[in-house]
Design goal:
The complex is a heterodimer of chains A (195) and B (171).
Chain A (H helix, E strand, L loop, with lengths): L1 H32 L2 E3 L2 E3 L10 H11 L8 E6 L8 E2 L2 E7 L4 E9 L14 E3 H4 L6 E6 L7 E4 L5 E12 L12 E7 L5
Parallel strand pairs in A: 8-9
Antiparallel strand pairs in A: 1-2, 2-3, 3-10, 4-10, 5-8, 5-11, 6-7, 6-10
Helix pairs in contact in A: 1-2
Chain B lengths: L3 H34 L8 E2 L17 E9 L5 E5 L6 E6 L5 E6 L7 E7 L10 E5 L3 E9 L3 H11 L3 E4 L3
The chains are: A alpha+beta (195), B alpha+beta (171).
Chain lengths: 195, 171
């Protein structure tokens, strides 16, 4: 009798742990690869919409609570360079983009915890009002120091696994996300590596 | 005796626990956000300080926006929400208890500001009022974003936000 009770208790605990662990890893894996990808950018069109399924809703809530629906804004995330390596403070990157068919856009750098990086460089984001909405091509540097860059996102104190979020507000009807229309990230060099 | 029934039992429990966890995640996170945003009281606008690395209320905040949040509770009846217009992009968005963004209005649709009456879906909408919006849940969050990428713009937005209203509908 006691053995049966113990066995069931063990089964229940094992089931709960397995269920929670699989759910947590689903959310973690889903956050990385859920939705659509354009080059290294990931995007989930269901963000904030009321038709979001169980998993999408949980992922969006975990990664971007209080996000806007796709009609109002599109969100794209990037966490890897052109070779699929995680982003690191030790490296210098170049982000180059073109004008978007939208009212406003911004690119913000977030630490691995999803909040702004703990530095006081006030270079947390670049946006259309600074870069110019229809200026055509633009290039921004992502590095711990600004150097001679016209536009700069500071990765100082970001350590490893930071990410970029691109926000496109009021996209025009003909806005089409693609590897060509979204900015591209290039790793230029890393500390301790030969260029 | 075989261990099969214990394994099957554990797997069934795992499936239920998995789904419960996924189902609960957005609701729990919204509850946390509701509690944080209503720290100074529900049913009133709280103008957030300018977003800095110390802003840790909600993940991935944009440093280019001036945010105002009203954690709302419709248990005591409908609310009146008013958004003072702003010269650049602004929007009012409403989020249900499960995190769904069920309503949004921006400056393109409401150049002179927005005014809505927020009611719970299962209750009657008051008559003779402005635009009525139905909330799927009793509690939720209203959020205003005003584009303000610089410190000066943020300060101006903060002044404009003082005229926003989130309050019980006057009887």
């Amino acid at each position: 009798m006691l053995r049966r009770i113990l066995a069931w208790a063990l089964a229940i605990i094992a089931g709960m742990v397995l269920g929670a662990a699989s759910a947590w890893s689903m959310l973690a894996i889903g956050a990385k690869g859920f939705g659509e990808t354009y080059g290294a950018w990931t995007h989930n069109r269901a963000a904030g919409s009321t038709s979001a399924d169980l998993y999408t809703r949980a992922i969006i809530a975990k990664e971007g609570l209080l996000a806007l629906s796709a009609r109002e804004a599109l969100y794209f995330n990037l966490a890897e360079d052109q070779d699929g390596r995680p982003l690191s403070e030790d490296c210098v990157y170049e982000l180059s983009g073109r004008a978007f068919n939208a009212r406003w856009w911004s690119v913000t750098l977030y630490a691995d915890d999803g909040f702004l990086v703990q530095n006081n460089d006030f270079a947390y984001s670049i946006d259309a009002s600074r870069v110019g909405l229809r200026n055509g091509a633009w290039v921004a540097r992502i590095a711990p120091v600004r150097g001679d860059a016209a536009y700069w996102l500071s990765s100082r104190a970001a350590r490893r696994d930071f990410s970029l979020t691109l926000r496109v507000y009021n996209p025009q009807r003909d806005f089409r996300a693609s590897e060509e229309t979204l900015p591209s990230l290039t790793r230029l060099s890393c500390a301790g590596e030969r260029p | 005796m075989s261990a099969g029934k214990y394994v099957i039992g554990a797997l069934l429990i795992a499936v239920v626990a998995h789904l419960a966890f996924i189902f609960a995640t957005p609701r729990v996170l919204m509850n946390v956000a509701f509690d944080r945003l209503s720290a100074g009281g529900a049913n009133t606008w709280h103008v957030a300080d300018r977003v800095t690395p110390l802003s840790r209320t909600v993940v991935r905040p944009s440093p280019d926006f001036a945010y105002s949040a009203c954690a709302y509770d419709l248990a005591d009846g409908p609310l009146r929400l008013r958004v003072n217009p702003w010269h650049a992009y602004w929007s009012l968005s409403l989020y249900a208890g499960n995190s769904d963004n069920y309503f949004v209005i921006d400056d393109r649709e409401a150049r002179s500001g927005a005014e809505i009456v927020l009611v719970h879906r299962r209750r009657d909408a008051p008559e003779d009022t402005a635009r009525v919006v139905q909330s799927p849940t009793t509690r939720g969050v209203a959020l205003i974003r005003r584009l303000a990428p610089t410190s000066d713009e943020y300060n101006r937005a903060r002044e404009v936000a003082r005229a926003d209203i989130c309050a019980a509908l006057a009887q």
